[in-house]
Amino acid sequence: MQDYLKGLNEPQLEAVTHINGPLMIVAGAGSGKTKVLTTRIAHLMAHGIDSFNILALTFTNKAAAEMKERVEKILGNTEARNLYIGTFHSVFARLLRAEAHRLGYPANFTIYDTDDSRSVIKTVVNELNLDDKHYKPNIVGSRISAAKNALMTPAEYALDHFIQQEDMRANRPAIAQIYAAYASRCFKNGAMDFDDLLLKMYEVLKHFPDALHKYQHKFKYIMIDEYQDTNPVQYQIAKLLAAVHENICVVGDDAQSIYSFRGATIENILQFQKDYDDVKVVKLEQNYRSSKNIIHVANEVIRNNKGQIPKNLWTDNAEGDKIRLVRTMTDNDEGRFVADTIQEQKLRNHYLNRDFAILYRTNAQSRSFEESLRRMGIPYRIYGGVSFYQRKEIKDFLAYLRVIINTKDEEALKRIINYPVRGIGKTTIEKCVIIANEQNIPMFDVLTRAAEFGFKAGTLEALQNFVTMIRYFQSLLTEKNAYDVAVQVGKHTNIVKELFNDKTTEGLARYENIQELLNSIKEWIESPANEDGEVGNKSLGAYLQQITLLTDADDDKENSDVVKLMTIHAAKGLEFGCVFVAGVEESLFPSGMAINTREELEEERRLFYVAVTRAKQRLWLTYANSRYRFGQLVQNEPSRFIDEMPEQYIDKSYAGGGARNSTGFDQRFGGFGAAPARKAPVSRQPSKPEYLPPAPPNKVVEHKPSIDFVASDVSALQAGQEVEHQKFGFGRIVAIEGSNHNPIATIQFQLNGEKKIMLNYAKLRIVE
DNA sequence: GCTCACGAAATTTTT
DNA sequence: TTTCGTGAGC
């Protein structure tokens, strides 16, 4: 047996060694799904399948990167770089660069993120003389998105009886019209939104048999991760691509389907067996992640859902602690409880910051945790706020690059035409837009031909100067790389200088962000492969396309020792030693927006299932009697999901109803009936995604070495190992750097923070 | 064309 | 409570 097959359990082995024909892997939470996927890819290659013929699709860049890395590790060579591993969006964006011309798009089409897309909708709504208060971009946008994900064209949308009735009932009859206008505007701008990356890929395959043939024979082996989250477009694409060879392997867990609001249909996984003859089904039911108590609770709660794929998740792990249910008076008390408990657990059970995650239903809940953690000096990072690339100054700067690459990109053009100020005012811009619409030409062409349209001399000059500048940047493209062009943009437009001279705090931050952006472009240029593995294409166009598909979860500083705060959605696929699920209250979790139908409620329950199964050893569920929402105090009942958990796995001693004790809990957290403790008005710091407490002073918290302290041989020391230092105490290796002769370990000590230790001199005892 | 002040809306989840 | 957009005024 090959080495890489060792250590797989029986169903895992079965899945990995199935080579030809359709395969469905039902992978319970924590059942080694990624291991199976990556090992299977390695196995395919070991059996002579060319890496160029394998396609693996995921939902997040992170999952894709991890997969690629692990395959590379198993194989021990660079063959893995030829694999097509990436998110649906990034892989299709890459293919569309080569194919979009068939549909009339430029190869350098722009990718609109949600903000861009909403902004186009707003423009279009106004141009149609509709009220954008009533036709809110978000509402309209999600209708359009749903239509696209269901493969519905504007014409079909307008003719669909059910849809039209829905829109009439909501008093928004013009959405069909807006959809049509939006689609043609995006096309005119040479731009695709996120949904288009899927939809246009589908159209290419559907309408161009030679393209379909090409990719069917290129991707002889297809794997799809998180199949329960695929939507109809993704489903159809997969079906088309797999039609010839039928070597399609899907992996998923119907119990973790949590993206129906984004068009995902759980039916795809439930029906997979009917789509192909002779589907092999493998169930991975052994959980390697969590304690017995956690698994039991998760199983019991999810049982309340109907129509699942039958499965029995079990574990050999220890029974573990009971799940702790905690009730507090207010959301602030909830924050304080969590921060206190983290501190206590760190001391008592030797956890590091990074072993903790605080999970919540909505991003807005992060505030109370931020405040308490900061007050306790516990470093944390919030995932899923505004991504770096969505910040205004970054988007403004990128807009230049976008226009240089694609002058038809009107969204970008409007951002920069008068930034920095160059005397092209609102009136002029409006006039340009109107002319562009009348003549049906791109707005940039109005600028280049400004002389024809009777602008005043001063305005005309300003417009022409702008065009000249853009043309100059474009002329650099042939000989300069993306970074050099970006630097020129920063210089020539005066953006960098202007921000540099702005000495306010925000100005300083903006300046730093631009510098960071430039650095990241440079880094990208120098990296061997792009995110999705496209080697060699370092053009500015390629850079822009992949940048739009990045989220802030992707630039993960995996090694930093911080508590992680994120929504449950963002936590899918991750695991932590200790998990707090916060705000387990009716109307918050399950969300008040999602309790109107059985389907919605079941999705909330699956979300709860996902939350619970993130925990390895310890799990807390917290809820507050009252919390601030819209600045108003509201009272919530405990979540119905709490009632669905069997008592025997729950420790309710902090939940109010049970025996109360003398731990001081009541005083600290308000207990029953106490007036909601309004905290003294703390000067509110701007919410930053990351907080690192000031470096601890050089004062060392004394550590008494263990009685059996013997220095270990540290020559094979690796990141992740736990060690004891005679003076600094217990800690975990973060990284080993330095040369072979003089290795330096970065160690995160529990009591003394992060230190760099020279291994040639220090005496360390390896604990694990 | 920019700044300030006021009022209204916001909170479900995201590639 | 905070953020965002609008409109008046400079």
Q: Short summary of the structure?
A:
By secondary structure, the protein is an alpha/beta fold. It contains 30 helices and 24 strands.
Question: What would your notes on this structure say?
Answer:
Helix 15 links the parallel strand 9 and strand 10. By secondary structure, the chain is of the alpha/beta class. The relative contact order is 0.11. Strands 11, 12, 13, 14, 15, 16, 17, 18 and 19 form a nine-stranded mixed sheet that branches. It has a six-stranded parallel sheet with strand order 3-2-6-7-1-8, with helices on both faces. A five-stranded antiparallel sheet has the order 23-22-21-20-24, with no helix packed on it. The two termini are 30 Å apart. 43% of the residues lie in helices and 16% in strands. The chain binds a DNA duplex (15 and 10 nucleotides) through helix 4, helix 10, helix 27 and helix 28.
